[in-house]
Amino acid sequence: MVLYEYPFNEGIRTMLRLEHLFDRLGQLVARDAPVDHHFAIATIFEIMDVASRADLKSDLLKELERHRSQLQTYRGNPYISEAALDQIVGRIDRAYDGLNQLQGKAGQALQSNDWLMSIRSRIGIPGGTCEFDLPAYYGWQQLEPARRRADLLGWIATLSPMAEGLQVLLGLLRDSGVPQRVVATAGQYQQSLPSGKTYQLMRVRLDDGLVPEMTGHRLMVGVRLMRPDAEGRLRLAAEDRDFELTLCA
Length: 249
Description:
The protein is an alpha+beta fold. It is built from eight helices and eight strands. It has two domains: 10-172, Orthogonal Bundle (YacF-like), CATH 1.10.3900.10; 177-248, YacF-like domains (YacF-like). The chain has helices at residues 10-29, 34-50, 56-72, 82-100, 114-123, 135-141, 145-157, 160-175, and strands at 2-7, 180-184, 188-192, 201-206, 211-216, 220-228, 234-236, 241-248.
């Protein structure tokens, strides 16, 4: 089974892109090869580019505050575990405080690092980080993996508050949905959405070999089940297939 996600608005789209980049960054940093650490630096620059939106930090803070206020209304509810509530609110508080203390945009502290910025200016050029173009960078790549990793972790620390905030918010969003088994008739499925409720994320889990083509807005969601042909082009799998659908508000 493979899980696919489809965001309904630009804010969630940006958050998912950043989550994808932070996940990739964590995998690359843990490895030892110089080429992996090269792509870890490239990923740091991608995160800085995606997170450069002026209002992203304030949007994340507002969302964390909204969730905290909403959860506080459950205090005293006999059906809600106070210990579990304290744990979730504590995670939100830590994420909020860390993000609030972050100076400027994500990665702004790295922009004063001339060595990193010299790499950033050339990394988009094909072959632009060769040893004769950036000898200092080539020398860094020859260091022991532990030394390179320590440098990477220091740079990543300036981005960690945003990563933690994203993890908390996307976790809360995903937990808000209830999975349901549905059937795509002749490979196609549509569902009307109730008025007065705004969904932000659609999650589809289905068998390997099928690829969902997803659409969604405030009134309706749709899923077409596709199967790649021998050339890799997607064709409609015109058969009845069930899959798991989750709508998160």
